[in-house]
């Protein structure tokens, strides 16, 4: 059963104080806190196992390799990929998207071909493609959004597809609006036009069950640090047929089969895309984070966070001058919004609100949230963002609401 007090004990940082006030950590979309089991496992690996993976004949190297590859299998199960070869370790979502942008555009696109993203993307799903646009002359187009932060035309996405559209790359969940995009519908339509789809799962993998086979996405990217794992590790899932077609992203050790001055051949999947020493301690940590999430239960996590989102929206709406961005949520369960609530209050600048909330011990994010084109669309410079994790409570939302009221009275 979901015992929130017991869960919070797994995250000692949650019981610390800042400025003499209990910490209320509501910046989980930026990064989550790490449970003891993740920290212990990583410390234990450095203390007792540490050795470079894949290339050693000795005992420690074998043991480290086993842990590293077991983590890959754990990730495969977590997202229900068909094959272990489809799981590529990266530094995070950003690197995963850059990998596809570089390798896909270079091998599958010509000048004038188009990549379609949305108006609500994180910069990593915009700038990665813009870099390829500069390099190769491809064109980055975007699907517009409605005033309440949903995709326009998701049922009629064909309006935005042209004969030159070669890839669609979309956020599963917006890191600003919390909008859950109908990725399955989009993928179905895209596939009818033979267009592959990359799903940016940075804000969905921490909160809901992911099944890449059921979703039928061609690529799926996510970050370990946003789902209770360590920083510096993430995952690119790619359908085997696509990963086979794409050239390597970076060159170096681990990714080669044979190197001569004349010609180099590459390792089999997934190693072709994993140049250099991997962060094998972080992969082990990620596996422990997945174990942790699984032991709490993905269904519990999803239901708990949706209830927090609903409660937060309801409570925020009682504050004068409150403007919440993204889909309006009424009733429960919340179907199209997840774990992220962005808002502004009257004329109070988001940075002032965030700074004053911080003095009350409440950690929220302020600013453009790496989504400047979305801010332009909304006609604002930034928002205050509260985002939730499995350990947050309604009491913390009450503290946020009381804090906002207090700050509002100062202006
Ligand atoms: C939707 C989305 N995509 C991509 C990223 C980039 O993730 P990372 O910085 O872990 O690579 C983030 C991070 O906030 C995000 O929210």
What does this structure look like?
There is one protein chain. This protein is α/β, with parallel strands linked by helices and 411 residues long. The chain folds into 2 domains: 4-30 and 297-409, Alpha-Beta Complex (Aspartate Aminotransferase, domain 1), CATH 3.90.1150; 39-293, Aspartate Aminotransferase, domain 2, CATH 3.40.640. The protein has 13 helices and 17 strands. Residues 29, 92-94, 122, 124-125, 171, 175, 200, 202-203, 223 line the site of pyridoxal-5'-phosphate.
Number of separate helices: 13
- Multimeric state of these chains? single chain
The H-and-E topology, N to C, reads as HEEEHHEHEHEEHEHEEHEEHHEEHEEHEH
CATH fold annotation of the largest domain: Aspartate Aminotransferase, domain 2
The distinct bound ligands, ions and cofactors come out as: pyridoxal-5'-phosphate
Judging by the overall fold, what is the CATH architecture of the largest domain? 3-Layer(aba) Sandwich
Gyration radius, to the nearest Å?
Answer: 22 Å
Please outline the major beta sheet: 7 strands, mixed
CATH superfamily of the largest domain: Type I PLP-dependent aspartate aminotransferase-like (Major domain)
């Amino acid at each position: 059963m979901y015992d929130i007090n017991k869960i919070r004990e797994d995250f000692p940082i949650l019981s610390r104080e800042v400025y003499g006030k209990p910490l209320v950590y509501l910046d989980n979309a930026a990064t989550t806190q790490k449970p003891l089991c993740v920290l212990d496992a990583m410390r234990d690996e450095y203390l007792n196992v540490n050795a470079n993976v894949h290339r050693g004949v000795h005992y420690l190297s074998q043991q480290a390799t086993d842990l590293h590859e077991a983590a890959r299998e754990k990730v495969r199960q977590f997202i229900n990929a068909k094959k272990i070869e489809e799981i590529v370790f990266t530094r995070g979502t950003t690197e995963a998207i850059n990998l596809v942008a570089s390798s896909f555009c270079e091998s599958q696109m010509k000048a004038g071909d188009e990549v379609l993203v949305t108006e609500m993307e994180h910069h990593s799903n915009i700038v990665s493609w813009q870099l390829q646009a500069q390099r190769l002359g491809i064109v980055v187009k975007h699907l517009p959004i409605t005033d309440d932060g949903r995709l326009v035309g998701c049922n009629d996405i064909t309006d935005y597809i042209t004969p030159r559209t070669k890839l669609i790359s979309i956020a599963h969940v917006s890191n600003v609006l919390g909008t859950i995009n109908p990725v399955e519908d989009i993928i179905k339509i895209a596939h009818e036009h033979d267009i592959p789809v990359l799903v940016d799962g940075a804000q969905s993998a921490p909160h809901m069950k992911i099944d890449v086979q059921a979703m039928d996405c061609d690529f799926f990217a996510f970050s370990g640090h946003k789902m209770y794992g360590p920083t510096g590790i993430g995952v690119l899932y790619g359908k085997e047929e696509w990963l086979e077609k794409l050239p390597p992203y970076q060159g170096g050790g681990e990714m080669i089969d044979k190197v001569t001055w004349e010609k180099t051949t590459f390792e089999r999947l997934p190693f072709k895309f994993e140049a250099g020493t991997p962060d094998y301690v972080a992969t082990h940590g990620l596996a422990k984070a997945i174990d942790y999430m699984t032991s709490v239960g993905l269904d519990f996590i999803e239901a708990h966070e949706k209830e927090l989102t609903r409660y937060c929206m309801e409570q925020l709406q009682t504050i004068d001058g409150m403007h919440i961005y993204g889909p309006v949520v009424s009733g429960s369960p919340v179907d199209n919004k997840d774990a992220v609530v962005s808002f502004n209050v009257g004329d109070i600048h988001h940075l002032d609100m965030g700074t004053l909330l911080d003095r009350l011990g409440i950690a929220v994010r302020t600013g453009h949230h790496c989504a400047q084109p979305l801010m332009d669309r909304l006609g604002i410079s930034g928002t205050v963002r509260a985002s939730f994790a499995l350990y947050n409570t309604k009491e913390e939302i009450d503290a946020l609401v009381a804090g906002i009221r207090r700050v509002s009275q100062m202006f």
